[in-house]
Amino acid sequence: MNSPSVPRKAAHAPPAALHETLQRQRRSARWHALEYLFWCLPVLAYFLFPGNYLLLSQIAITGLFALSLDLIFGYAGIISLGHAAFFGVGAYTVGLLGLRGMGDPLTGLLLAALFAAVLGFLSSFLVLRGSDLARLMVTLGVALMLYELANKFTRITGGVDGIPGLEIKPILGLFEFDMYGRVGYLYAVAVLFLLFWLARRIVHSPFGQSLRGIQMNAQRMPALGVPVHRRLVAVYTLGAAYAGVAGAVLAQTNQFVSLSVLGFENSADLLLILILGGTGRLYGGLIGAIVFIVAKHLLSDINPQYWQFWLGLALVLLVMFARGGILGTAAQWLERRRERARQRGQELAP
User: Which H or E element spans position 126?
Assistant: First the structure.
């Protein structure tokens, strides 16, 4: 894949600046120690919380769902209030396959990704036509239409009763989903890790760099040879496929599909999770999913009647005092520490 930005810069940048740019890109693409530590957490959670596999699976699936929104919003700047549409397509794909005895998990993932991607590709031409406000309305409208279609065609989707008791076959013919959610959790984490690894490769590729450029200044990118519209269509389709896979994993691990997967609350919660963790950072969606679901779980246990008040208060305080989300605020704090250390070093220098 050819770089749309670096080679053009290379033609005009001095050798030292070019070398520094390339070194910075290589450093950001490497795996860091904190990342290895982060991916040890799911393994530790498996042994430390043996009675909470269903909650842990929900965190992993929501993290993948948030990652799909981060690809289109955090990196390409396409805001959406109807991302649950793709999530629901993935979930209902698995549900309808399961009803017909086609419950192979990997086939379900592939078909869910395919159907969600097709919907994303077709709707992208509507979504990308207008401003941010128009995109909000169009994405919300698509999700609402799918919700009502699923509600109306009861004979196919089960309507408000959903599709219960899906028959999901063992993974690779070896690992059967158990009632404790142990296999489902490992399966969800494995799918999350593979798709995260792929997303990481994509955002650090020239394609990902061009998306950042489009987000910063879409008007100038054509002058660098970047086909802006095609890149936005591609990333929107990719984000839809990721969301479809997340929905498919939810249906497979729960063995149940309901209208809630297409609901507006699903999209709104997802946007909150991404803003909470930090947009445009890949790990932001994962951190946001962990914090949001754990906080929701604990607050609903402590104060079942008013837990939404405390969760809302926490979100308001976060937006007021940590506008970059958890990861954005942490990055700003580290940058300030480095700057102070640099200034102290200059003062002590002879």
Answer: helix 105-127
Q: What distance in Å separates the CA atoms of residue 260 and residue 310, rounded to the nearest whole number? A: 23
For the purposes of burial, counting CB atoms within 10 Å of the CB of 31, is it exposed (0-12), middle (13-18) or buried (19 or more)?
exposed
State the angle between helix axes of 84-99 and 228-254 in degrees (0 to 180), rounded to the nearest 10: 50
Cβ pair 281, 327 in contact under 8 A: yes
Closest by alpha carbon to 283, among 53, 38, 86? 38
Which tokens hold the place of 107?
A: 């086939």
pLDDT > 60? residue 334: yes
Distance CA 274, CA 85 (A): 17
| 175 secondary structure, DSSP code | B
First to last CA, the chain: 49
Region of poorest pLDDT, from 95-109, 145-159, 278-292, 322-336: 322-336
Amino acid at 132: D
Contact of 186 with 249, CB cutoff 8 Å: no
Q: Extract the tokens encoding 102.
A: 């086609």
Q: How far is CA 257 from its chain centroid?
A: 20
- The pTM assigned to this predicted structure is 0.88
Q: What is the DSSP letter of 224?
A: G
13 CB-contact burial (10 Å; exposed 0-12 / middle 13-18 / buried 19+): middle
> Residue 170 and residue 187: Cα distance in Å, rounded?
11
Tokens of 259: 């209208």
